[in-house]
Amino acid sequence: MFLRQMTYFVAVVKYNSFTEAAEQCYISQSAISQQINALEKELGVKLLQRKNRTFHLTLAGDYFYQHCQTILEEIDRFTNETRRIGEEDAEEHLRVGYLKWYGGSELQNAIADFSELYPEVSLSVVNSNHESLYHLLLSGEVDLVLSDQRRAFSNDYVNHHLLYSDCYVEISNRNPLSNQETVTANQLKQTPCIIVASKDQRENEQEFYRYTLGFNGSFLFVESLEEGRLMVINNRGFMPIESVGSVSQHNLSIQRIPLYKGKEQLKRNYCAFWSKDKSNYYIEEFTAILEKHLY
Question: What CATH code is carried by the domain that includes residue 176?
Fold first, then answer.
């Protein structure tokens, strides 16, 4: 009731007329006059000083009018936003993030299967580097992230293991190392390491490949897997590759060699990550579909 009285009061002052305010608010003139009287009684002060058929604002009335406008505008804004969120929520959606260098077909096949089973769900994807995907998940901008494990698992998230992937490097057939059956990071230190990374993530990716995987040479950066392979073909460097599902067919000018550390091939743990607080059937179902394609 108080909110409605505020609306009537603002209308009366705005149009400088009880009659016109009543028309704009779709009530009678007597009714709007009664509501203003009730408002003044509730507040215990006069808002309007009436004289014959005219009126002017008291000091209290002017103060109340200015603040009423601000409050009503703010209420209108958050009411509209609430409706917008409600309408968005009515349409189910799933937002998936995956790594920039991923080139296999499993994700595309999983999206196709999921969309066929759940046509009512709007599915969108974004690709980026590990750190960017991590922050997108933290901020709620994506619902599900498919990425490698670089941190200890958090209890706030579902950390669903997908597979341990074998690590390889792709290198030009013109490079002397291309004749080897296996290769180590130490053997590659004289050859630049080509990393698929966006500009804002280059430093993070370089630190990971240098200090975690042991690549101690120089680094070159590209924006996509295709660009990286062109540089490999040109014998500009080698590119680390992991077999997350099927590794796409590479050019005949490129040799793919298992990457070893000591006597064992390096492996990486790949997982699906999502917030426990936002877990739902569609996230779990999409993960299950993807997992079937990966095996």
Answer: 3.40.190.290
Domain identity same for 103 and 80:
no
Same domain, 72 and 154: no
Provide the domain count of the chain: 2
Are residues 247 and 113 located together in one domain of the fold?
yes
Query: Whole-prediction pTM value?
Result: 0.63
Whether 70 and 16 share a structural domain: yes
Q: Which residues of 54-92 are buried (b: 16+ CB within 10 A; e: fewer)?
A: ebebeeebeebbeebeeeeeeeeeeeeeeeeeeeeeeee
Question: What is residue 226's three-state secondary structure?
Answer: helix
* Full domain range(s) for residue 34: 2-89
* Binned average pLDDT, 10 residues per bin, the chain of 295 residues: 87 91 89 91 91 88 91 85 61 87 85 93 90 90 92 91 91 94 95 92 91 92 91 95 60 88 91 91 94 87
- Residues 46 and 37: their CA atoms lie apart, in Å, by 9
Task: Copy the structure tokens of residue 145.
Answer: 């992230």
DSSP state of 208: I
Report CA-CA distances (Å) from 134 to 6, 61, 98, 150, 191: 47, 53, 10, 10, 30
The three-state secondary structure class of 256 is strand
